[in-house]
Design brief:
The chain is mainly beta. About 0% of the residues lie in helices and about 45% in strands. The strands form 3 sheets. Strands 1, 2, 3, 4, 5, 8, 11 and 12 form an 8-stranded antiparallel sheet that branches. It has a two-stranded antiparallel ribbon with strand order 6-10. The chain starts with 13 loop residues before the first strand and ends with a strand.
Length: about 230
């Protein structure tokens, strides 16, 4: 089974940092006009000493996750993983059977094969508001990154009479679970997002760098190799 990659999506905000409380000057950041990151998080520690002016695409004042367009970035942190790995067979070659009327067989496919695969498989993102999950893909480890396995089957395997052998390519994976760390909390106070957008609705936010929220699970690649399946 060959697993294909998916398309990465990014989330943007028009954001600026307040330079001086006595002045109404904001430095706007150009961003993509996509849906906002709307999250509901458990209480955390907001250690930011100043506020920052952020604008959601829907002009809401809900809490948001930090991304490439904001001064601070939300991180993905691994909190649990399986003790054992599992095999994802990304390619199976032709089957060979050792004849019954011989003492044994030494079989080599003697060809080369390259197979593409996706680094992260079985990605699941859980946040209080379901539609936000699609916007957090890029924060999750190895999401939407592909790789490949190239094997030259010049090595051989020994078979008993009647046994079958099949060249395969394997991606070794490990189930991994994590959370998102860091979130912007709205103060509810409006602000001017940019001198070029005087009518834009933006709000002041404080950054809570250590707050954990949401969760994700995925099967991350540990290694990949070529071998023979013998039965």
């Amino acid at each position: 089974m060959t697993i294909n990659g998916g398309a990465r999506r990014s989330v943007g905000f028009v954001a600026a940092r307040k330079r001086n409380p006595a002045r109404s000057k904001w430095a706007g950041l150009l961003t993509l006009g996509l849906a906002p990151l709307v999250v509901m998080a458990s209480p955390g520690v907001a250690s930011a000493s100043s506020t920052v002016c952020l604008q959601n695409a829907d002009s809401s004042q809900r809490d948001i996750a930090g991304n490439w367009s904001t001064p601070d970035k939300t991180r993905s942190v691994t909190v649990q993983q399986a003790s054992k790995t599992w095999q994802d067979w990304v390619w199976r070659g032709p089957t060979f059977q050792c004849p019954w009327n011989v003492p044994s067989c030494s079989y080599a496919w003697q060809q080369s094969k390259t197979t593409g695969w996706k680094v992260s498989v079985g990605l699941s993102i859980k946040v209080p508001i379901p539609k936000v999950g699609k916007l957090l893909d890029e924060l999750t480890p190895s999401y939407d990154r592909s790789g490949s396995t190239s094997t030259s089957y010049t090595f051989s395997t020994n078979l008993r009479p009647g046994q079958f052998a099949q060249p395969i390519q394997v991606v070794e994976r490990r189930w991994t679970q994590g959370v998102y760390v860091g979130i912007y909390h709205s103060t509810g106070k409006s602000c001017l997002p940019s001198p070029t957008r005087p009518n834009g609705k933006a709000y002041q936010y404080t950054w809570s760098p250590n707050e954990r929220w949401g969760s994700w699970t995925t099967n991350l690649r540990v290694s990949d190799y070529g071998t023979y399946h013998v039965w």
